[in-house]
Amino acid sequence: MSDRMNATPNDMRAFWMPFTANRQFKKEPRLFVGAKDMYYTTHDGRTVLDGTAGLWCVNAGHCRPKITEAIRQQAGELDYAPAFQLGHPKAFELANRLIDIAPEGMGHVLYTNSGSESVETALKVALAYQRVKGQGSRTRLIGRERGYHGVNFGGISVGGIVANRKMFGTLLTGVDHMPHTHNLAKNAFTRGMPEHGGDLATELERIVTLHDASTIAAVIVEPVAGSTGVLIPPKGYLQKLREICTKHGILLIFDEVITGFGRLGAPFAAQYFDVKPDIITTAKGLTNGVIPMGAVFVTNEIHDAFMTGPEHMIEFFHGYTYSGNPIASAAALGTLDTYREEGLLTRAAELAGYWEDALHSLKDCPNVIDIRNIGLIGAIELEPIAGEPTKRAFSAFLKAYEKGLLIRTTGDIIALSPPLIIEKAQIDELFTKLRDVLMNNI
Ligand code: PXG
Ligand code: PLP
After folding, report:
1. What is the mean pLDDT of residues 349-363?
2. Residue 263 CA, ligand 1 centroid: distance in Å
3. What is the pTM of this model?
4. Ligand 1 pocket mutation, candidates 17, 19, 20, 56, criterion most atoms within 8 A of CB
């Protein structure tokens, strides 16, 4: 008998869930059925404080009226417009609004539908740019160990998370990786940016020496590595990467899918760290996570390099059916309005000190081997149970969920990234609940 014949309306087998222990989940499901501002409602009627902004994306909190209304209106007015050789006004309006908050000189935007697609788009722009500049031998892409750049082939090739790579063959050729910067022995319990490890950027010089600059198109890094468990750049590290890239004619791509749209207290990490990349990838917070959409920002110099040749010719052979989709564009405009009206793109800077103190107050909890923070991001690294990595953190996740708190875990690291609307009283609620979990964790 096929699975289909066994199916009942609430049968869970057909949906093969992403990055999930499917069999375990389906035995004991956790479903959200509603959300408002800082809280989710579960299928069994409980309230759960959102300590992770969904998956790092609901920066303005849940079910915000401006965004809901923008989507509702757009769906009834213009549902879809072809994206190639045609357009609609909101996609242009949105691009203008986006470059207003972007680092100076990043005056052009390509649309995608996710962070993974933003990464593929950025890598392709970088390769094509080198070629149109007469530097066609620059085909190598450099990523970093423990980097996360989504799940498509380019992204897992430059990414450095072993489990996301090892099953999928030879990936892209011509990719190399810099070492990651995580150093518990030297930097554990640092508040903000670590002192040690800035010189690891010079590993890029070693890679350039090995391959020769004339073969390297671009370097891609997350300014703050999120998915791997929150690795904060050591002091001076990003500046040094920028210097080396500039010196060798290599493009620097910041993957800001997590850090974009206010997570650190500035619109983008590029502004927070005062380091200017050539390309920025975004998604998530662009639409408050509500409708899938991403955007890739490029410098005027990159854009202009393509605007040559006959005007009737397509300048860049790339794009998606849903690039700049009307409903997604409307959702993004509603999101930017909400961010602006409530000052959310800089609010993390005001809360960062309070957040840091509250987070580091967990230092005395059992099995905590590191706590780190930047902006409205926090991470607590736990001592793995011998022979059973990831189990301690995952059991903390389950206990927190029972106690009405949503946290995110990766390996034995707990990551926290609440909506930027969080109030101090809710920061207190979050850490009171988390202390309770950690005190009684296995
Ligand atoms: N780049 C970066 C830096 C990301 O963090 C992506 C690309 C891919 O985005 P999409 O939209 O294709 O998922 C991401 C996504 C987690 C977690 O809990 C992180 C992400 C996604 C889901 C969970 O750490 N990052
Ligand atoms: N596969 C097929 C058969 C298609 O026709 C298309 C788009 O027309 C795609 C994939 C790409 O889809 P999208 O543009 O939504 O990424």
Report:
1. 98
2. 14
3. 0.96
4. 56
